[in-house]
């Protein structure tokens, strides 16, 4: 890291209390939550973004069982009844079609139930799809690009509906 403005931007992005010269220095500092302005948020962000870069022989077969993922969401808890009810209020027929599509086993490995399942996350995706398609219409040709969503879950739901 030779550019001073980049060093400062990097420290600010992750909420470090001080600026370091190298990524290795940031990695060492990240071992102490006190290095961050907001210890919980900064530590989790830094470890999630830098951790996979540093890890060797990482298997993604059951990533949704990792403790950090459980902190962010509870993948095998659900359904989210509020999301489901809101979708029905928007458009009952469309919601029925959207929620007929069940959760994907991607990333759950052997922990995924053998019966069709609607996780909280999948239920929220169902609500978002119901809202989106109730506004733009479902018979319209769509090109879907999902960035940072649910590992393709919204694109998968759209593909199955259209």
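^ Assign residues to that structure.
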């Amino acid at each position: 890291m030779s550019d001073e403005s980049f060093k400062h931007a990097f420290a600010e992005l992750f909420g470090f209390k001080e600026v370091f010269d190298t990524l290795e220095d940031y990695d060492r500092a990240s071992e102490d939550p006190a290095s961050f302005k907001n210890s919980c948020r900064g530590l989790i962000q830094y470890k999630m973004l830098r951790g996979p870069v540093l890890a060797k022989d990482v298997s993604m077969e059951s990533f949704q069982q990792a403790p950090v993922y459980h902190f962010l969401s509870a993948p095998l808890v659900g359904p989210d009844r509020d999301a489901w009810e809101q979708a029905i209020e928007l458009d009952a027929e469309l919601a029925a079609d959207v929620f007929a599509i069940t959760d994907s086993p991607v990333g759950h490995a052997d922990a995924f139930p053998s019966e069709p399942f609607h996780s909280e996350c999948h239920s929220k995706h169902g609500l978002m799809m119901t809202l989106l398609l109730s506004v733009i219409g479902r018979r319209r040709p769509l090109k879907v690009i999902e960035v940072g969503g649910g590992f393709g879950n919204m694109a998968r739901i759209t593909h199955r509906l259209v």
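Residues 87 and 127 are 5 Å apart (CA to CA).
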